[in-house]
Amino acid sequence: MIEKDITPKLSEPVEDINEAEQPKLDKLGRAYATGRRKTSVSRVWIKYGGKKITVNGKSSKDYFKRKIYSTILEEPLSKTENLDKLEIFSTVSGGGLSGQAGAIRHGISRALVNFDPSLRKKLKKAGFLTRDARKVERKKFGKHKARRSPQFSKR
In terms of pTM, does the model score above 0.85? Predict the structure, then answer.
């Protein structure tokens, strides 16, 4: 009887698998990610530092006047216990304040995974890594709004 080698062959070496668990940082020690929500797009950089969140050159409290938007930004950080350890710099454009806050939260979550890949499981379970694909539906011709039809008149 001929014995066959039944050990599974990996398409890539074992060292490459471990490299996926390495943080992706730039020369300045920052992790970068892009976040999106509705029509807003944000670019987020994370590095070690004090509790400081900057949005378009202003502090998050000054940029987002309502407290709920600042709370939305801090959700991924508080979930991973990194609120006081990291400094966040972001730029955001497009959409309104709600979409911008959601875009920055998505960007922070993705940047946290690039900064520390072990946080992925926690953030994925909380739903912060999933892009919210809901957008405003376009208006169709023959309709008052996207779906609202003209009033029906029998006579």
Answer: no
